[in-house]
Amino acid sequence: MTRQPEKTYQHLPLPEDDSGFIGLWFVGLWSILLFALSGILWMHWQTLNQYTEATAVADTAAITAAAGGIDIDEYRTSRGENIVLDSSLTEEIAHQVLQAHGRGPDTTQVTVEGQTVTVMISDTIDPLLLQVLGVSPIIFEVRGTAVPMQSE
After folding, report:
1. Which of 11, 74, 105, 152 could form a disulfide with 84 if both were Cys (CB 3.0 to 4.6 A apart)?
2. What is the pTM of this model?
3. Structurally, how many domains does the chain consist of?
4. 11 in a structural domain
5. How far apart are the first and last CA of the chain?
6. In a domain, 124, yes or no
């Protein structure tokens, strides 16, 4: 049996410069940018969702109050010709609808001026992910307005 010679490996010298290190920087930079972008998108989605929900609640409260707050005695006396809102009843109905949707009196305002019911909701969004970057809470206000009308 003949013996085969052992293979010898030649070791290549390591580079003296930092080539390849820039790739690590790019990966780190892209990771940070991706995190910031995802935080901004999350905050935008959260803001849109909360704004849409608050608008729907304000509109619902205003429409329900305008429809349910009609002064029935005045309506019957005028034989359906005159639609007048009972201010206290209208405000009470609006506050009941707001309470049913988890909105307290500290963030809501209901006004009845003549035939117009206006419900205003103030809300705050805390951007938890972006507080690291110094983004302060977002405060917004929505209004829902309704006027009672006779059906045709």
Report:
1. 74
2. 0.72
3. 1
4. no
5. 110
6. yes
Q: Do the domain assignments include residue 55?
A: yes
Report whether 127 contacts 146 (CB < 8 A).
Answer: no
The C-alpha atoms of residue 123 and residue 115 are separated, in whole angstroms, by 27
Does residue 152 belong to any structural domain of this protein?
Answer: no
* Structural domain for 61, as ranges: 21-146
Residue 106 tokens read as 């500290």
Place of tokens 């977002």: 138
pLDDT per position as a tens digit, 101-144: 999 888 999 999 988 999 999 998 887 766 777 778 888 899 99
Residue position matching structure tokens 């963030």: 107
Locate tokens 């820039």: which residue? Answer: 22
Inter-residue contact 46 to 111 (CB < 8 Å): no
Tell me the pLDDT tens digit for each residue of 70-79. 888 888 888 8
